[in-house]
Specification:
Elements: H1 2-8, H2 20-28, E1 55-61, H3 81-84, H4 133-143, H5 148-161, E2 166-171, E3 174-178, H6 184-191, H7 205-213, E4 216-218, H8 230-235, E5 241-244, H9 263-272, E6 277-279, H10 292-297, E7 305-306, E8 314-315
Parallel strand pairs: 3-4, 4-5, 5-6
Antiparallel strand pairs: 1-2, 2-3, 7-8
């Protein structure tokens, strides 16, 4: 439900999804009525006149409309930090069956006769209870599976995120990559030119050149696992700086507060960039105090980082 509300900008418990204000702004327009442009991968963007000759922008994604939409809902859990690496940095071997072996197996005859009484819902002649417990139990368990609406909401969420602009800026000789909320399908478009599932077959030489030459990487989607593929982090220039707009526990479900930002992803980015990863929750913003653990990490910042005041962190590229 939260994903559907967020995607549609609908109100949830009176608060609205996090995209509500943004979608309303797109629908009603900006107050000063500037021109609005819609881009797709390969387009030549229009930049403000005062920036001509100072900055360039290359649109890498999303995939063009005529690509048939194969990239929009594309996902690849094998190349996400959620599926491939656990919080301890070790490979995730998948789900471990809790009851293996013959000693755990049993038939209905091994249970007491009143085991399924709770699920007996009908009576026969003379008030005798019908034994339909196993049938009702199976129906109850089936009803606990994700419904079609939840599946549709998840697909919609991925489709919208894969429409994010991926822009490579070049300014004064420095390259800065902004990927928005782009998920696997968007990355796959400018990496391979085709939808890919399963193990990474090897990103293109052009993609390697881009990722290996950037000076700044804006971490996608607040540090979520599905917006920052493993091959992307592995190919990053080890001398680049990286910034993640995030806050522990602000995104994701209450049961997975460490899911966004993904711990394994943050660790991998810090290692790849030589501890040049900066998080927005490292500094105070309004009434929001810095993350307690993040404050301790500030002492480990490499030279070049400064914190002149609240709300922002400076880094000299």
């Amino acid at each position: 439900m939260r994903k559907a509300e967020n995607a549609l900008g609908a109100s949830g418990n009176g608060g609205g999804g996090s995209n509500a204000k943004a979608l309303k702004l797109l629908q009603s327009g900006f107050k000063n009525k500037p021109p609005v442009y819609y881009y797709q991968g390969g387009d030549d963007p229009t930049l403000p006149g005062e920036l001509q000759g100072m900055i360039t922008a290359e649109i890498l994604g999303p995939s063009p409309i005529d690509s048939g939409g194969e990239f929009l809902a594309s996902d690849n859990k094998k190349e996400q930090y959620l599926a491939a690496v656990g919080d301890n940095g070790l490979p995730d071997t998948g789900h471990v069956p809790p009851f293996e072996g013959a000693k755990w197996k049993a038939s209905a005859a091994d249970y007491p006769s009143d085991t399924f009484n709770e699920f007996d819902t009908a009576t026969g002649e003379g008030g005798a209870r019908k034994r339909n417990g196993p049938i009702q139990l199976e129906s109850t368990l089936a009803g606990m599976q994700p419904d079609a609406l939840a599946a549709a909401a998840d697909k919609l969420d991925g489709t919208l995120n894969n429409q994010s602009l991926v822009v490579l800026f070049t300014c004064l000789g420095k390259k800065l990559l902004f990927v928005g909320d782009a998920q696997w399908g968007n990355w796959a478009y400018w990496w391979y030119g085709k939808a890919v599932t399963g193990a990474d077959p090897g990103i293109s030489e052009r993609a390697k050149d881009i990722l290996g030459s950037i000076d700044f990487y804006k971490v996608g989607h607040h540090g979520s696992t599905n917006a920052n593929p493993i091959p992307a982090v592995a190919a990053l220039n080890k001398g680049c700086a990286s910034m993640c707009s995030t806050a522990t526990g602000a995104y994701g479900s209450p049961a997975t507060k460490r899911e966004v930002p993904r711990t394994a992803l943050m660790d991998a980015l810090e290692k790849q960039t030589g501890n040049r990863l900066v998080r927005s929750d490292w500094v105070k913003a309004g009434d929001n105090e810095p993350d307690k653990e993040a404050r301790e990490e500030l002492a480990d910042l490499p030279s070049g980082f400064t914190t002149p005041g609240d709300l922002y962190i400076d880094y000299i590229l």
